[in-house]
Design a protein that fits this description.
Ribosomal Protein S8, Chain: A, domain 1, 6-stranded antiparallel sheet, 243 residues, alpha+beta, 5 helices, GMP Synthetase, Chain A, domain 3, 3-stranded mixed sheet, 41% helix, elongated
Length: 243
Amino acid sequence: MNYVSGRANLLILMLNPVCIIARSISLFIILRHTSAKAMNKIRIPSIYAEMTPNPMTMKFVADYMLLPDGVHLEIMSAGAAGESPLALELFRMPFVKGVYIAANFVTVLKNDKASWNDVAFDVRDFIKDFIGSGGKIWNPAAPKASDDLQNNQTSAPEQFVSHAEPANSSEQKIIDAIEEHIKPAVESDGGLILFRSFKDGVVTLQLKGSCNGCPSSAITLKAGVEQLLKRVVPEVTEVIQEM
């Protein structure tokens, strides 16, 4: 019995290092997997600032998508920022008048009391730190917007922004032309352009982001968009902006 017991004890001693190594490997795999999940959950973005044709706006571009496809947030007051924690925090900066978020960029509208030369880097660093620390860009489950803090008006951010439903082939051609030829250029400037209606030869479009209120938007509509749509749809006589 002592001989058998001795061999058993020797076998246990021999297996112990193996068990220790196995446990160490398992622990390493678990820690590595947990670390990878944490890195995937919170990704620190690379953000750069980009001027737009609108001198009152600045576009802050990330190296990955910030919102799902089809979601655009245009928020023009702190009271309407309930669904966007990022926008709400940006409105705490005294010079911020509006925030537009889409795809991989954030467009910030400022007032005339600040210069981008003085505040652009501060805004860029804030957005980077906010997202990198796990702050939410969009919270669709949040309560709807409260009363506007400045104008005492209820104003909710627009979310799933899209063109008006086309009623005929001419309107579909207009939308197709906007999507293919106009929208990419407008988005590169931190804005958005949407088809709203086509009646009696007049196309009505809605401008958002940096395009809204841009001094050159009227020229863009007439010299660029209107001429293109007239070529695509001969029935088009004029292009105007929805007010």
